[in-house]
């Protein structure tokens, strides 16, 4: 069977137009591969512009990520507030003296007999020193 890559229609490797190092023998300028250096300053200027654009885009992307993060945190905080019953003074505090009086009247003052029962059942030491914050007591 005949190999299709060796068909007579394909160019032969053995020819006069052999390309060496990316150039044919017919090239008149032996320095053609170095011609890009002629415009090196323009190349560097364009490369610097691309780099500046890349840095600018990266900064914008970082700012967008930061804004998105802050927005997510704020949204989570709002959801958390909705989950819990928070004390809101404008809503929860009475606005008038009548409302304050109503709340005061709703308070129940216990009678002295239940207070004595509470004292009898207490396991606090009645002979203990009075607690003063910030003072250290030594047990001697």
Structure description:
By secondary structure, this protein is mainly α. It has a domain at 38-83. It is 49% helix and 3% strand. It contains 4 helices and 2 strands; from the N terminus they run ββαααα. A hairpin with a 2-residue loop joins strand 1 and strand 2 (23-24). The longest helix is centred in the middle third of the chain and has 44 residues, at 40-83. The mean pLDDT is 76.
List the helices and strands and how they pair.
Elements: E1 19-20, E2 23-24, H1 40-83, H2 89-92, H3 97-106, H4 112-121
Antiparallel strand pairs: 1-2
Features:
cytoplasm, about 140 residues, mainly alpha, about 50% helix
Mean pLDDT: 76
Cα-atom Rg, whole angstroms? 45 Å
Uncertain segments are none
Basic shape: elongated
- Supply the helix-strand structural class: mainly alpha
Estimate the helix proportion, in percent.
40-55%
How many strands, what sense, and barrel or not for the largest sheet?
A: 2 strands, antiparallel
Q: What is the number of E strands?
A: 2
Binned strand content: under 5%
Q: Strand-and-helix sequence, N→C?
A: EEHHHH
Instruction: Please report the number of helical segments.
Output: 4
Cα-to-Cα separation, first versus last residue: 110 Å
Strand order of the largest sheet: 1-2
